[in-house]
Sequence to fold (228 residues):
Amino acid sequence: MIRTKMTLMGCIAWLTAAGMACSAEPASPPRQNNAPLQDKVQPVIDRVEKACLERTVYMIGRVKAERLAELVRRAKPKVVVECGTALGYSGLWIARELQTAGSGKLITIEISPQRAREAEATFREAGLADIVTVKVGDATKVVHQIKGPVDFVFIDCGYSNYLPCLSGLEDELSKGATIVADNVGIGASGLGDYLKHVQTKYTSRTEWFDIELPWAPRDAMEISVVAK
Ligand SMILES: C[S@@+](CC[C@H](N)C(=O)[O-])C[C@H]1O[C@@H](n2cnc3c(N)ncnc32)[C@H](O)[C@@H]1O
Fold:
């Protein structure tokens, strides 16, 4: 039997060369992204993203979702309203930021009861059920039931609904609130009324993204901020 012996000095030299610490514990696997080490949400995001792509359920996609999450992180909202839940993909990105911040709730509205149920199960699976309320119904009507202050709005539910959704929330918006609208690149022709409204009333900018979604290689989000 051949036995391999490694002296302590040899161990240190080898591990130093490999850029590792000398420890009795096995080395942890390299991190895939900037998510926290204990991130239980990322595997759920990955699963839902795959399901959306396989079933052609339209969703924001990773590139815009990263930007959306960054905007939530900076805004530190106490209340977020999302119009258009689908399977909960964008909601997962928003709610993970709220969970990490240690405060904030997401109310997300979906017209399809089946999708709303599926999203609810997904938020439970991700450990976000305490943070997220899924409301079933027409967002243009449901928004009128929401009492503010609302600090952050994400609109993604059919172009003709964008302006009615925002109008229904406007009296409840806090000073400095952020409003993000998806698809203002690919949907620009159907969103003229919305874009004219936010660009007249708020500080508003259009941000473009190269995206990797099968239905659009490039798209934009409109980011509008209420005066403080
Ligand atoms: C583009 S998908 C939302 C994607 C989701 N925000 C994401 O990125 O994961 C649009 C969703 O809005 C829903 N929807 C359409 N009209 C609506 C309305 N009036 N009220 C609420 N939801 C609506 C659709 O059923 C669909 O699930």
Q: What stands out?
A: The longest strand covers residues 203-213. The chain has one domain: 42-225. The helical segments are 8-17, 42-55, 62-75, 89-101, 113-125, 139-142, 162-169, 192-201. The chain has a mean pLDDT of 87.
